[in-house]
């Protein structure tokens, strides 16, 4: 039984990222359907998810539609009680729910001035006082969760929970706009940037290669502060493999990594791999299985 998830541009749609992480990080099967923001694709896609008005939207295996991220989250918690979306400790769950609700409704200065853009990072975005006030509040609630419940791991409540999914786009905003935060907050940001699931999402956004001009700012740029991917490039075949590592279909698009050529069934499969090869387990398994001994 598989859910359907409607999302927008991976590089820019912060709420889509949250919705996708609910499924990706907790092992809930989902089929993803995409649209390009600010085009008629959005309404065409949402016609299949009525009465939802925005992405993300979810259709359950039984055909029920859920809009709004908190409603999606709570539906998944109810339907998948063993997935671990909320912390196990009752006091931690209280805090996590409160943090998620505050994120859903608040921090309007950060959200308004610093739209999510996973394709850019700036040296200095000259944040307004209102943005800095939002960041100070975010740091406060992050540290409160980490101090009380974070001993078991690098996330807000030790292990990954829905609260981390909700704050993932905030972490990317700090990275994109180089917002000033403490070392502890920066460490938490880097935990998101190095997470394989997030890196796969970002690589898929790079593969989509969509540019939304309103998301770009006239600031000096710097390299993306996350891990440096392995260097791969598009090339011509033939390849070492005859079947795409993801679909099993015949290959038609190719990349070169460390002197060897690999094939994929379409440009998106190739390009998402090219942008961050080591975070795609099926590709790495294929690559390592044929590595010289």
TrEMBL record:
<protein>
    <submittedName>
        <fullName>Glutathione S-transferase</fullName>
    </submittedName>
</protein>
<feature type="domain" description="GST N-terminal">
    <location>
        <begin position="1"/>
        <end position="84"/>
    </location>
</feature>
<dbReference type="InterPro" id="IPR036282">
    <property type="entry name" value="Glutathione-S-Trfase_C_sf"/>
</dbReference>
<dbReference type="InterPro" id="IPR036249">
    <property type="entry name" value="Thioredoxin-like_sf"/>
</dbReference>
<dbReference type="Pfam" id="PF13409">
    <property type="entry name" value="GST_N_2"/>
</dbReference>
<dbReference type="InterPro" id="IPR004045">
    <property type="entry name" value="Glutathione_S-Trfase_N"/>
</dbReference>
């Amino acid at each position: 039984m598989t859910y359907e998830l409607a999302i927008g541009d991976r590089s820019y749609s912060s709420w889509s990222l949250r919705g996708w992480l609910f499924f990706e990080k907790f092992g809930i099967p989902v089929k993803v359907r995409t649209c390009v923001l600010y085009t008629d694709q959005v309404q065409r896609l949402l016609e299949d998810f009525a009465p939802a008005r925005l992405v993300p939207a979810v259709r359950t295996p039984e055909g029920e539609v859920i809009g709004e991220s908190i409603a999606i989250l709570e539906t998944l918690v109810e339907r998948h009680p063993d997935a671990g979306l909320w912390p196990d400790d009752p006091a931690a769950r209280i805090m996590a729910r409160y943090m998620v609700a505050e994120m859903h409704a608040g921090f309007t200065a950060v959200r308004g001035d610093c739209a999510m853009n996973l394709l850019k990072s700036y040296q200095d975005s000259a944040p307004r006082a209102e943005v800095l006030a939002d960041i100070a509040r975010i740091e406060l609630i992050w540290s409160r969760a980490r101090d009380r419940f974070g001993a078991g791991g690098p996330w807000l409540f030790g292990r990954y929970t829905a609260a981390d999914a909700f704050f993932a786009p905030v972490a990317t905003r700090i990275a994109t706009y180089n917002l000033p935060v403490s070392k502890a907050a920066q460490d938490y940001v880097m935990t998101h940037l190095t997470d394989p699931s997030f890196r796969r999402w970002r690589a898929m956004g790079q593969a989509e290669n969509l540019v939304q001009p309103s998301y770009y700012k006239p600031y000096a740029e710097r390299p993306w502060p996350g891990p440096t991917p392995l260097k791969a490039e598009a090339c011509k075949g033939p390849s070492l493999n005859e079947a795409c590592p993801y679909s099993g279909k015949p290959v038609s698009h190719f990349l070169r990594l460390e002197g060897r050529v690999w094939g994929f069934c379409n440009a998106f499969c190739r390009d998402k791999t090219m942008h961050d090869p080591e975070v795609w387990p099926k590709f790495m398994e294929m690559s390592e299985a044929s590595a010289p001994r």
